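To: structure subgroup
Subject: Chain for Friday's discussion

All,

I'm putting the inputs and outputs inline so they're searchable in the archive.
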Amino acid sequence: MDTPRPSKLPLLVAWAVVLLVSALPTVFAQEVFGQAVSPDGYTLFSLAVIGIALVFAFAWKPLRGLLPFLALFVVFVGGRWLVYNRIDTLGRYPAWLANSSFSVSMLAEQSLHLIVTALIVGALLLMGKKPRDFYLAKGDLNAPTGPVRWMGVGPGTRWGKFGLILTLCISLGTLTFLVVAGRPSLDLAVRVLPYLPAILLAATLNALTEEINYKASFLSVLESPVGPRQALYMVAFYFGMAHYYGVPYGIVGVILATFLGWILAKSMQETRGLFWAWFIHFWQDVWIFSFLAIGSIVPGGG
């Protein structure tokens, strides 16, 4: 007796939601029609897309497996709008965020990221998931690495070695780009040393919150309905599109961020933990925040 093939409908719906709620429509509106999309407009459009998908998921049994993913997306989109467009205007936040001191402004920004993460983790716990279910664990640091032939990663490679190589390559690549682009003087590099504790704390928090918010959380609710590989692609694409207006700008930035999102999410799936994703991201952020600190000493970092 033939085993029935699983329906592709959840996969198609999940991809449609990811595409429409990603930065893709915003980038399209801006780059093609010259129309900037406000945070409120983006949020309303995204929640409408997710809301329509939720209606179909409740009404149609083949889509029920997407309910946790869609519910988490509501928390993610709504939580980010609430924190970055409402909470950041309360109390002392405007003054902290506008402060010329890197230590004050960056740590204020990181506290906002932590609020979003708390909302996401809270939502996952309410869904009945345990921390290990959404990769909030160290994991097996020396787990086998799935072969990636175009990267020269063959059978028998383990994350204990591969993770260290990735950390070195990605962090040095980031540093090289920043040095070539910013050309800081040795004097500025020395003057930024007092900011080192704030840089390390900001890198620790930013790497942790981004890995949970953009990757670990969504992997945990997508792997079952669409499969681990497609979940990996969706997470990588969404993370990559979010960096279109980052540094480097445009398609190059999207490609680099998509690769980074893919390889870090892959590390979570294969080690069943967050360590390597956080560690690689942390060292990249150390260099990025160091140059932001330099920019706070001399505008432009020069």
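Points worth raising on Friday:
The chain has a mean pLDDT of 92.
DSSP finds twelve helices and no strands in the chain.

D.
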